[in-house]
Structure formats: structure tokens, C-alpha cells
Design goal:
By secondary structure, this protein is an alpha/beta fold.
């Protein structure tokens, strides 16, 4: 579950109190583009963590970064948005990457190559920045293909789209689905 610091003025006690033991809580998912500095974000994040832990000390409280911001020269590079060691119960990373598109690399081997996550500069930088800061997880991992080379993955055709046979699926409690 995630909330933004602007919501802290609202009474979040019932929301936080309603969380289940398996839930996790995050303040401002992917904050790097929305704050003028890591210090400004961490001030808000620490206040949110204190509020959350006062209400529900059993709910893990973490931070989820946006991978793009950990590329060289971007806001997250250097780790200024990462909480200090021991502050976060977990650190997450959302990462999206299309294959290297036809517009920039035209060899058959390079077009739409999807590189392993551990070779991406943003992932390597995030790992470096979060070393010894707490448990790490990849919370969103999306890889796609850029068939026309415009930098955007093409949408996939839905299996029931016109011209495609519709697969019939069964469901034990909902026949016909």
C-alpha cells in the first residue's frame, strides 16, 4: 500500500489500522521526480514512517524507487533518496525497459534485445546505493519490445481481439469462464 505525504494531513489512522499483517506500506512510490532533493523526500518519508510505526509497528514500512532515476545524471544517482541503514524495513525498485529499439541499433542481434536486469546501469547503481540499507526487492519488473523503434513498446493484441480465436478457459467455481 502506498500513500503520498500530502495525504498525511488526512486522518490515515483508520487506513493504516485496517492493513492486514501481510501488507507492506510505502510513502510516495517512485518519489525521485517529484522532490527537489533527496533530503526533502527523506524528511517527508521519515515523518510518514514515524506516523505509520506509531499506529502499526507490525507493518513493514519501506521505500520504492523508480529505476530510471538511477541512471547516471538523474535524481536518484548517488543514493540521496535512499533511507539510511536500518530505517527502511525493505527497499524496492520498479523497473521498466523496452528492448533496444530499431531506431538506435539496427543489427538483427540488437533490435529488441532485452538485456538482463543486472547489466542495466540503473539497476547496478540502485544496488550500489542500497547496499547494507535493508532487504531489497524488485517490486515491478517489466520488459517489452519496441517493434517500430519509436522508444515505446507496442501494445499486445488481446487474445480475444478480432481475427484471433478466443481461448476457452474453465474455472472450477465459475463455469464458462
Amino acid at each position: 500500500m502506498s500513500f503520498k505525504p500530502a495525504q498525511q494531513g488526512a486522518d490515515l489512522s483508520s487506513y493504516i489500522g485496517s492493513l492486514c499483517p501481510q501488507d507492506r506500506l510505502v510513502c510516495h512510490h517512485e518519489p525521485e521526480a517529484d522532490y527537489t532533493s533527496g533530503a526533502a523526500f527523506l524528511t517527508a518519508w521519515r515523518a510518514a514512517r514515524a506516523m505509520s510505526k506509531a499506529l502499526r509497528p507490525d507493518i513493514p514500512f519501506g521505500m520504492i524507487a523508480g529505476a530510471f532515476q538511477y541512471r547516471p545524471g538523474n535524481a536518484g544517482a548517488g543514493g540521496t533518496f535512499i533511507p539510511d541503514p536500518g530505517e527502511a524495513d525493505f527497499l524496492g525498485l520498479d523497473t521498466y525497459r523496452i528492448g533496444l529499439g530499431a531506431a538506435s541499433q539496427t543489427t538483427p542481434q540488437a533490435v529488441n534485445r532485452i538485456d538482463p536486469i543486472d547489466t542495466l546501469p540503473e539497476f547496478v547503481e540502485w544496488l550500489r546505493c542500497t547496499d547494507d540499507r535493508g532487504p531489497r526487492i524488485v517490486t515491478e519488473y517489466n520488459r517489452g519490445l519496441d517493434k517500430d523503434g519509436d522508444g515505446n513498446p507496442l501494445p499486445r493484441q488481446h487474445p480475444s481481439a478480432p481475427g484471433r480465436p478466443r481461448a476457452r478457459r474453465g474455472h472450477p467455481r465459475k463455469p464458462g469462464l
